[in-house]
From TrEMBL:
Pfam families named in the record: MFS_1
GO CC annotations, alphabetized: membrane
Subcellular localization: Membrane
Keywords linked to the UniProt accession: Membrane, Transmembrane, Transmembrane helix
Membrane topology: Multi-pass membrane protein
Transmembrane segment boundaries: 55-75, 95-112, 124-143, 149-171
Region Disordered, annotated ranges: 1-31
Source species taxonomy: Eukaryota, Fungi, Dikarya, Ascomycota, Pezizomycotina
Residue ranges annotated for the Major facilitator superfamily (MFS) profile domain, each copy included: 57-211
Entry protein name: Caffeine resistance protein 5
Similarity comment text for this entry: Belongs to the major facilitator superfamily.
PROSITE patterns to which the protein is assigned, alphabetical: MFS
Keyword ATP-binding attached: no
Organism (species): Penicillium bovifimosum
SUPFAM superfamilies attached to this UniProt entry: MFS general substrate transporter (SSF103473)
Length: 211
């Protein structure tokens, strides 16, 4: 017996028996909605795009992943100076103002992963980039620590998109045979952040200034 499908009642017996009700199995109806590519060579399929376009997109996603990963802790050396500028002596805030960005990184995928499946990866990426830029600018002009913390959180929320969707974007573009190389290039971005931060911090003094 199939679960969810009503059991038909029979009005006759033997070979002439016919069900008194009709039903259809979901998926067997020819009118069922089905979305697919127009053949294996459909140019709307990202896997059929020119290689130059594919690798350009992968390069942009990789750079964006590097950028948002760098924003997590690059301003750490300047936190003491920031607290002095805001006349704040709470030492616990020096850690929280950095880590709140990661809180956004944790919450963001719960929002953007499902919405990217509904609206597509490109619109979500555009919204992320614009939101990240606006939040970054507002952080730069913050007038107090709470304002900075709120917009650091928003930076993390919007900045998680390249990390969250990067693998999916590459899977949309590349066949299984070529996917490993592209994923390796994309994954190098966050690894380079640690090297770049070391160089960046080495040319700054204790107050976060160059010198």
């Amino acid at each position: 017996m199939n679960k969810g499908i009503p059991e038909p009642e029979f009005e006759a017996h033997g070979e002439d028996a016919r069900p008194s009700i009709e039903y259809s199995v979901p998926g067997d109806d020819e009118t069922s909605n089905c979305i697919d590519w127009d053949g294996p060579d459909d140019l709307s399929n990202p896997m059929n795009w020119p290689d130059a376009r594919k690798w350009s997109i992968i390069a942009l996603v990789s750079f964006n992943t590097f950028n948002v990963s760098m924003a997590a802790s690059i301003f750490t050396p300047g936190v003491p100076q920031m607290l002095r500028n805001f006349n704040n002596t709470n030492s616990q805030l020096s850690t929280f103002v950095v880590s709140v960005y990661i809180v956004g990184f944790v919450i963001g995928p719960l929002i953007f992963s499902p919405t990217s499946e509904i609206y597509g990866r490109l619109p979500i990426t555009h919204v992320s980039n614009i939101s990240f830029l606006i939040a970054t600018v507002i952080c730069a002009v913050s007038v107090d620590v709470p304002m900075l913390i709120v917009f650091r959180l928003l930076m993390g929320l919007s900045g998680c998109v390249p990390v969250t969707l990067g693998g999916g974007i590459i899977a949309d573009l590349m066949s299984v045979e070529r996917r490993g190389t592209a994923l390796t290039i994309w994954a190098v971005g966050p690894l380079l952040v640690r090297l770049s931060e070391g160089i960046w911090h080495s040319v700054r003094d204790g107050d976060g200034h160059f010198g």
